[in-house]
Specification:
The protein has helices spanning about 1-10, 10-20, 25-50, 50-55, 60-95, 95-115, 125-145, 155-180, 185-220. The protein is mainly alpha-helical and about 230 residues long. It has one domain (about 1-220). The longest helix has about 35 residues, at about 185-220.
Length: about 230
């Protein structure tokens, strides 16, 4: 418990302490609890917000509105069909986000360190990310559970989620500094490399594949039957 308190008080001192004293079992429990909250939040969101609301509701993002305006009626039908088909999978990914951030984040940092010829044990990094996800992610999910996903509190929930993400990044940065014995600048570079090449790049490839499928469907004039 003292390591968790230390991590809540200071990302620098807490990260170093977790690297020394953190337990895999505690990390697993923290991630499990965070995932349980994430599942509850996802179920609540799915019951409160329809898939059509995400695409055509007043709260949709400007990028979605621009895309739908460019595609026209038939293209919009294709987009809606593909989005409805993938909606359960998107909800599942959202529910399991703490596990994915834990595993992908720790492995990305370890892989980036190996590319930089830095050889350190992987387990401390895995444990650190478990602690970090377990204490930062629940803040956003608790805020979402207690607020209205379509009401005025949604902005506050997004702000809390942003703060939790920044805190997670600070923990990761200080953890990299301590575990790999790096300066602040080199630790930041390693963290950016991990995010870009082993985290964002695969996600970007997946999104590009989805866009390619969408473009092919529009060019082939595939419109699902009503």
């Amino acid at each position: 418990m003292s390591t968790i308190v230390a991590l809540l008080r200071s990302p620098a001192d807490g990260a170093a302490r977790v690297l020394r004293e953190g337990r895999p079992s505690v990390a697993l429990i923290l991630v499990g609890a965070a995932t349980a909250l994430s599942v509850l939040n996802t179920l609540r969101f799915a019951s409160a917000v329809a898939v059509e609301e995400v695409m055509f509701g007043p709260g949709r993002s400007p990028a979605v509105g621009l895309l739908l305006g460019l595609l026209g009626r038939e293209g919009t039908s294709v987009v809606l069909y593909l989005f409805q088909s993938s909606w359960p999978a998107l909800l599942a990914v959202g529910a399991l986000a703490p596990v994915l951030v834990w595993l992908l984040g720790s492995t990305a940092v370890h892989a980036a360190a190996r590319l930089s010829a830095l050889r350190r044990p992987f387990l401390p990094v895995l444990v650190l990310f478990g602690y970090a996800v377990g204490i930062t992610r629940p803040a956003a999910d608790l805020a979402a559970l207690t607020g209205d996903p379509q009401g005025p509190s949604a902005a506050l929930t997004q702000l809390i989620a942003l703060g939790a993400t920044v805190w997670l990044g600070l923990i990761a940065w200080h953890g990299i500094r301590a575990h790999y014995d790096l300066t602040g600048g080199r630790a930041l570079t390693l963290l950016v490399v991990a995010l870009v090449f082993f985290y964002l790049a695969p996600i970007t490839l997946i999104l590009l594949a989805l866009v390619a499928i969408l473009v092919a469907a529009v060019l082939l004039e595939y419109v699902p039957a009503p």
